Amino acid sequence: MAQEWNEKMAALYQERYSRLYGAAYRILERQSAAEDAVHTAFVRLLRMKGHYDALTADELCYMAVCVVRHVAFNMLREEKKHLLCETPEELSSRRQNAGAEAALRMTGVQGNNEDALRERVRETLYCMPDEECRLLWMKYYAGMSNQDIATALHISRHAADMRLHRARRELEKRIKEAVI
Length: 180
Fold this sequence. Notes:
It is a single chain. It is built from nine helices and no strands. By secondary structure, the chain is mostly helical. It has two domains: 2-83, Orthogonal Bundle (Rna Polymerase Sigma Factor, Chain: A), CATH 1.10.1740; 87-179, Arc Repressor Mutant, subunit A (Orthogonal Bundle). Helix 2 crosses helix 4 (57-84) and helix 8 (146-153) crosses helix 9. The model has no long low-confidence stretch (mean pLDDT 77).
């Protein structure tokens, strides 16, 4: 019976991995974290055989998506707790790395040496106004929604949307200029 459950879970993993990964990635916005969330969820599902054994394949897929999302939200909560305990130096370093990752994803700029590209993004972020850099950090590293950003900055949601749009556009323009 345990072998049958393991085979059922292996089939689910192979057939639905991209869907589960996508659900986690939309929450965590980082490849490695999304992969970790999917794997953690499958470990939990494997241990919960007695609870989900009678489910059909579609029901099991739905349950897997729910567990992946739950794991991803827990990971995000833990990251935010950790952020509250960081020193200013750690926060500054993390902001630079997060901005670089976001810019690389956003601009679609690729190259043979990703470290060099990340360094270019960091340099570009240093040249940008603090407000634009802060907006990008809040959105892409802290995972804040546009409404949360608006509330934190005491501005309207529309103003936050526009400022984020302009900051992304400016970062994209500067990155592409630096690469060309």
